[in-house]
Amino acid sequence: MEEEYFPGDAIGILTYNLASEVDYVLDRLHLLESADQTYEVKLAKPVKKKNPELPHYVPKYVTPRRLLSECLDIRITPRKGLLQAMASCTADECEKRLLEILASKEGSNLYNELILKNEMNFLHVLKYVATCRPPLAMLIEHLPRLQARPYSIASYGRENHIRIAFAMLNDGQVGITTHMLESKLLHPGKWDKYLYMYLRQLKPVFNYREEDLERNIIMIGPGTGVTPYIGFLEYRKQAKSGSTRKTKMGSAWLLTSCRYQDRNYLYEHELKGFMQAGVLDRLHVASSRDEDSQYKYVQDIIEDRKEELVELLLDDATKLYLCGEGRTMLPRIQDTIVTCMSKVKSMPKSEAADLLAEYRKTGKYLYYSMIRH
């Protein structure tokens, strides 16, 4: 890559909605037959909004298929304004009333339980209310832009190429970008061979720079959460081999996990190579499906090594990095860290939680929540 990036930075990959899901929406809108016909998109008159304008990501001339494939996020969690708009074009009175309740202030508890807790997106709701026929103009108004998906760079300093990692899970849910990447690899003739992307720094910042070399680092990354740390360690290896530094490089711990060590232990050989090269001091791996594994989850490693880990974490020269699935996994790991701090230092758990929160504010603790793409 010609642009400068740091270990832990990411790329944003431009993606497409799944063809099957786009066809479903087109069918519900009675647009399948005209899906590939080009239309002009313009503001309806009269317009109630002050200074109205079309979204900049919607082309002036576009086909319904392209609009739903490339421009609009049809997997977005529906906000109340969208639900209210959907109610206005729903024929069945019971379905219409449900949408109106979900969109109301009084229906907030139901919205939280039904939509947020179950992670329902626009498609889920559309399938649930069978008589809803939203016009395409309404979707342009209420659906946000289909955003590029971030993927951590799993390399550093390699001329003309970078690496990323992604996982395909057999749980019935298909990420639109991981599906695209898998399809490009397995069926290259059916897809554009190019991948459209740009360099993207994660926010909050989650990277490793020259000034961090002297620090101790604790890297925690279950599953694909280990990905950015490969770049960290390649950077440390390059710094060590070509360095004229007089100061000592800080120690590095890595805690990661997989299901089975013999089949999906990501970067196993490279991590062992980093150990041999002296740029990774401690490596602990949990495997949830191996019967003879000492540790099932990263939390087990933290609990077992809590005295050493907490003492290292409390050192002023240490930074903590936590990367992984953010909805359930990372909060559990963070809670384990707080519990161990409380036990080792005999402090109330609330005080330990406040201290870790302070570490996030000061940049001593960096946290990156990965989402399904």
Describe this structure in words.
The protein has a five-stranded parallel β-sheet with strand order 8-7-6-9-10, sandwiched between helices. It is globular. With 373 residues, it is of the alpha/beta class. Helix content is 38%, strand content 13%. The chain has three domains: 59 residues, no CATH class; 124 residues, NADPH-cytochrome p450 Reductase, Chain A, domain 3 (Up-down Bundle); 161 residues, Rossmann fold. The model has no long low-confidence stretch (mean pLDDT 90). Helix 3 runs antiparallel to helix 4 and helix 11 runs parallel beside helix 13.
Secondary-structure element string = EHEEHHHHHHEHEEHEHEHHEHHE
The CATH top-level class label of the largest domain: Alpha Beta
CA-CA gap between termini: 23 Å
Q: Give the integer mean of the pLDDT values.
A: 90
- Number of helices, counting only DSSP H or I runs of 4 residues or more: 14
Annotation, overall tally of beta strands: 10
Oligomer: single chain
Binned strand content: 5-15%
Secondary structure: helix percent: 25-40%
Summarize the main sheet. 5 strands, parallel
Shape, per Cα inertia axes: globular
Radius of gyration: 24 Å
Derived structural class: alpha/beta
Instruction: Provide the CATH topology of the largest domain.
Output: Rossmann fold
The CATH architecture designation of the largest domain is 3-Layer(aba) Sandwich
Instruction: Give the name of the CATH superfamily of the largest domain.
Output: Nucleotide-binding domain of ferredoxin-NADP reductase (FNR) module
The side-by-side strand order for the widest beta sheet comes to 8-7-6-9-10
Low-confidence stretches: none
Total individual domains: 3
EC number: 1.16.1.8
Domain Oxidoreductase FAD/NAD(P)-binding: 219-330
Keywords: FAD, Flavoprotein, Oxidoreductase
Protein name: Methionine synthase reductase
